[in-house]
Amino acid sequence: MKRMLISCFAAALLFSPGWAVAEAKGKQQSKPKWADKNKDGIPDDWELKYKLGLGKNVANQDKDRDGLTNRVEYNLRLNPTKTDTDKDKILDGDEDTDRDGLTNSAEVALGTKPEDADSDNDRVKDGAEKKGKAKLSNVVQKLELQIKTAANQTIKVGYHWSKRHSHLHMKDQTGEVTASDVQALINDLQASPSLPNDQVITKIQTLFSLDTPFRLELEWKYGSGRTRKLSVKQSDKGNTTGQPGDDDQDDDDQDDDEGHDQDDDGKNSDSPDDASDE
After folding, report:
1. Which of 161, 146, 106, 139 is nearest to 226 (CA)?
2. Is residue 31 part of a domain?
3. DSSP-based three-state secondary structure for 56
4. Considering the domain boundaries, does residue 212 fall inside one?
């Protein structure tokens, strides 16, 4: 009788929900975690599969230069060596993977998660967030750059960005400028919309490996509508000539002020004529 009771008690424990949960937890804990030698949150197998290496900065690199880092491509289950993973003639950066109304590249620029339609879990899709509009004001939406190098070679860059797509066109006779260089420049301009013009020139000279003398024409527009221009000539001695920094918005304000001054002058000049007519 005692043996029968013990057997029944053991069977009850074995098939009880609590025992099953404990057993499941034990299996989960014993399951080996994927290797991450460089501790960047990306499995080593994935990095080695695409020949990215196991360096410290692999996650933040952009091997295929499509504007998405390897970390973003891993989170989106994309191929970090292909600009168009699914071969649908839409670049990975122009895809809207989470269908929130923002392209993957737009989400990167805004700091939201391209793999999550509601990054802050407030039940409002990222594309409908009002606060996103403020961040968009500092996004470079258009950029035109033309450089004539010391060797009389031409570099032309055209860039256009919107929430739905982005396009980059380059013509580089030097063979030195890459899409990553252009993206780095755009990132700097977005991070510091009021970056002094001499620093903008220095960044371009460094990123594009320019030797003096060179001529540079640059115009870029922010989401806020503000447009800035640079038109300079850098000499061998480091002297800068031309207009090292016009701001169209400021120029427009000045033009408006000048217009008001002319109107005021016109009104004042009419008074003597009116008096003489009388």
Report:
1. 139
2. no
3. coil
4. yes
Q: What is the DSSP letter of 87?
A: -
The Cα diameter of the chain in Å comes to: 133
List pLDDT tens digits, range 14-73: 555 554 545 555 555 544 567 988 888 999 999 999 999 998 889 888 888 777 889 999
Residue 230 in domain:
yes
Residues 206, 128 share a domain: no
E strand intervals along the chain: 140-148, 154-161, 166-172, 214-222, 227-234, 240-247
Residue 132's closest CA among 152, 108, 153, 155?
A: 108
For 26-39, b/e burial (b = at least 16 CB within 10 A) is eeeeeeeeeeeeee
What is the rounded radius of gyration, in angstroms, for the C-alpha atoms of the chain? 30
Specify whether 55 is located in the same domain as 146: no
Q: What are 63's strand-pairing partners?
A: none
Residue partners of 113: CB distance under 8 A and separation at least 6? 75, 98, 107, 119, 126
Q: How confident is the model at residue 86 (pLDDT cuts 50, 70, 90)?
A: very high
* Counted domains in the chain: 2
Tell whether the torsion through CA atoms of 55, 61, 64 and 69 is positive or negative. Answer: positive
Q: What is d(CA 107, CA 186) in angstroms, rounded to the nearest whole number?
A: 15
**Separation between Cα atoms, residue 86 and residue 248, nearest integer Å:** 41
Query: Do residues 131 and 220 both lie within one domain?
Result: no
A 10 A CB-CB count for 214 gives: 21
Residue 274 is predicted with a pLDDT of: 40
Range of the domain at 89: 44-136
Q: How far is CA 140 from CA 51, 54, 197, 265, 275, in A?
A: 32, 32, 16, 39, 55
